[in-house]
Amino acid sequence: MSDESGGRLRRPPDISHRTAALPDEAKQHGDHNRAAGAGRVRDGRRPVEPQETGRTEAAIAAYRHAAEAGNTDACWRLVELFQRVGRTEEAITWLRDRAETGDIDALWKAVELLQESERAEEAITWLRARAEAGDIHALRRLTVLLYQLDRAEEAITWLRARAEAGYPGALAHAVDLMYETGSAQEAITWLRARAETGDVHALIWAVLLLCETGHADRAILACLSTAELGRPDVLAQAIGLLRRLGPPGEAERLRRCGITPGRT
Description:
Layout: H1 24-34, H2 50-68, H3 72-84, H4 88-100, H5 104-116, H6 120-132, H7 136-148, H8 152-164, H9 170-180, H10 184-195, H11 200-212, H12 216-227, H13 232-245, H14 250-259
């Protein structure tokens, strides 16, 4: 699956390499936990000593202060520390707050933690609300999440509705999923209908799919029909795609035909 920039849809950020050098307080806390076998156990857990709590809280406060001052590494170390001491809910809350300010990595990691906590529906509700408010990154993450949950058809239906309403990025992700799930021809039909209304992006995607499925001749006809509607800008972009993807000479033939729409 690829995003609108042409790259693969991103995986959740790996923060382990950012947390290798925790401060002394956190290291001591971790070492103390590893030596806990000799401690008393109640309800399956070792009691937390007051000094441990103090060191952890001091580390959390230090990381939080640095993160709020703009230190990205401190943000991820804070998340890692929350997870190490079993405070995942606080990690999720912190990440969601960061995501609300536009932090893309925080958004992806928050969803990952919600999934691990068996709260995928909560993640879907949150992402959908953000996507419908115009957050393209939430839209992309929601697409990936639904795909991971084997709910691609639900994602496609939602994305197509968003595309029809003019949401940025929705059309690209809808087509991407349709192609992934073997519905390329359905996608082409939908895209051509949208292209005939003057949707430049729909035409470009239609040309791309037609070329990838071995129908460069149909791609040319799609471009010409749109050019006849008086959209030379669309024709120019389609020609550029055909130069990269179509058979040799087809782009030039389209360019000549496009000068006088209707000629073949």
